[in-house]
């Protein structure tokens, strides 16, 4: 009996030097044993090694290409719908900002390319580092425990490809939130940390996080917009449905300062066909917010307008993933998938429109109830706005709440820094890259070692890009022979 096949009943095999090999290593070694029926065992062994190296290179190239396609597809798809909405508008929203359509299209193309290179480089770097570590340290069990962790951390700096001077604090915090969710799920199923992480299993925790986030985000939208990311600020200004003069008027009365622009508010309503004179001694800003409309009438009219604004937002959100995640099913059952996407679009649009409407509804209610308007009232009135998240599907609630929580955290710490409570925070450069790298290390480790903590749709995308994580003995996979 060959020494390589001895002691095979317990899953291990003796090598020529008396050591132990597991089944997968034994299978690999057996491929290179000179066979009595083969005329050139060395060339056969060399061809097997060349095939393995080619498979590794192929995995890297495919992962890079798929990562690029996702990054460019998502960013390009969103840019396409934004440009389409711009072209459909008869006049620009702000006359003082004049940007030609050609400049917008060129900027969109650049951003699409950058994000494609970002995700393509991330995917390629992760797979390359995974294979390199496996080649140096071996593909045994002990390297599998930390290989994906290190590879994910080393792939994180690919974020710099989106722009060396462009900060992505919101994205980094959001990915950190995603990593924290995965880590908490690992803790919940752990015997050691299960009791500590049990509160994280609260059924309506996602709605509570949304309420908490809404209090900070919507308060900042009214009182301190400069604490919000520029793109998110534009989003809120559009779906908040109020002119900047109206927001300034609410800010003045909430801050306890004399009005600075009541004439601008009156002029705005005059352009809308409403002639009114505002009282500079008012205690509540309802007449500033909705003119001569009643609070109830304003709620219903605003809801219809908000729904029309929300539909173009969620159409690409459901259409683009359908083309990527459900690409195979789309060919077999296009009608059911498209119908599901349209229902999801209608439902999510209702959520966003109710969310924006309830922000003004709750604040008006509290202002009328307590006969005053101040900063605590604004924060209290925007807290229950997050209850609108209950309209969304349960599977989407945690995604939306984490997205908003990331922006709320960024806005909160920006406010603290502006007030002088965090003076050193301004000196930290590219902290977003550090946070992103730490987060991707956790996520990729969970992907390789704790796959059950992922939802199936995300796991399918990760498997499509990176390939199914290899077993400890071989990368990319221990194939049956």
Automatic annotation (TrEMBL):
It is found in: Endomembrane system. Belongs to the TMEM135 family. This is Transmembrane protein 135 N-terminal domain-containing protein. It comes from Lupinus angustifolius (Narrow-leaved blue lupine). Residues 294-414 form the Transmembrane protein 135 N-terminal domain. PANTHER family: TRANSMEMBRANE PROTEIN 135, TRANSMEMBRANE PROTEIN 135-RELATED. Its main location: membrane. The chain crosses the membrane at residues 60-85, 170-188, 311-330, 350-370. It is a multi-pass membrane protein. Pfam families: TMEM135_C_rich. GO terms for cellular component: endomembrane system.
């Amino acid at each position: 009996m060959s020494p390589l096949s001895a002691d095979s009943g317990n899953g291990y095999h003796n090598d020529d030097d008396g050591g132990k090999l597991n089944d997968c290593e034994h299978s690999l070694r057996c491929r290179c044993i000179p066979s009595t029926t083969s005329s050139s065992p060395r060339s056969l062994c060399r061809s097997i090694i060349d095939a393995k190296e080619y498979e590794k290179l192929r995995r890297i190239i495919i992962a890079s290409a798929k990562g690029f396609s996702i990054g460019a597809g998502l960013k390009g798809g969103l840019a396409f719908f934004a440009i389409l909405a711009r072209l459909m508008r008869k006049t620009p929203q702000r006359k003082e900002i004049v940007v030609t359509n050609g400049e917008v299209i060129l900027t969109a193309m650049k951003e699409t390319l950058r994000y494609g290179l970002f995700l393509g480089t991330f995917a390629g770097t992760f797979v390359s580092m995974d294979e390199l570590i496996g080649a140096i340290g071996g593909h045994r069990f002990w390297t599998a425990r930390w290989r994906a962790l290190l590879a994910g951390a080393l792939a994180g700096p690919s974020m710099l490809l989106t722009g060396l001077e462009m900060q992505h604090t919101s994205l980094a915090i959001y990915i950190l939130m995603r990593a924290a969710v995965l880590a908490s799920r690992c803790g919940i199923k752990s015997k050691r940390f299960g009791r500590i992480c049990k509160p994280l299993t609260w059924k309506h925790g996602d709605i509570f996080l949304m309420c908490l986030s809404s209090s900070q985000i919507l308060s900042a939208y009214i009182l301190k917009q400069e604490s919000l990311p520029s793109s998110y600020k534009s989003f809120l200004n559009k779906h908040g449905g109020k002119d900047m003069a109206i927001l300034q008027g609410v800010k003045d009365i909430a801050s306890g300062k004399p009005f600075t622009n009541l004439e601008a508010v009156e002029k705005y309503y005059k352009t809308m066909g409403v002639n009114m004179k505002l009282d500079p001694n008012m205690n509540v800003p309802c007449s500033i917010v909705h003119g001569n409309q009643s609070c109830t009438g304003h709620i219903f009219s605003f809801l219809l307008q908000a729904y029309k604004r929300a539909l173009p937002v969620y159409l690409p959100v459901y259409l683009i993933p359908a083309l990527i995640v459900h690409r195979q099913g789309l060919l077999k059952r296009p009608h059911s998938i498209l119908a599901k996407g349209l229902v999801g679009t209608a439902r999510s649009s209702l959520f966003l429109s109710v969310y924006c409407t309830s922000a003004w509804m709750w604040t008006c209610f509290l202002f009328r109830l307590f006969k005053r308007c101040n900063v605590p009232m604004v924060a209290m009135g925007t807290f229950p706005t997050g209850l609108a998240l209950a309209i969304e599907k349960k599977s989407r609630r945690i995604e939306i709440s984490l997205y908003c929580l990331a922006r709320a955290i960024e806005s909160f710490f920006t406010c603290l820094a502006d007030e002088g409570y965090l003076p050193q925070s301004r000196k930290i450069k590219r902290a977003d890259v550090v946070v992103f790298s730490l987060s991707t290390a956790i996520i990729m480790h969970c992907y390789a070692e704790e796959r059950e903590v992922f939802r199936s749709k995300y796991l399918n995308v990760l498997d499509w890009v990176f390939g199914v994580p290899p077993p400890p003995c071989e990368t990319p996979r221990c194939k049956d022979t």
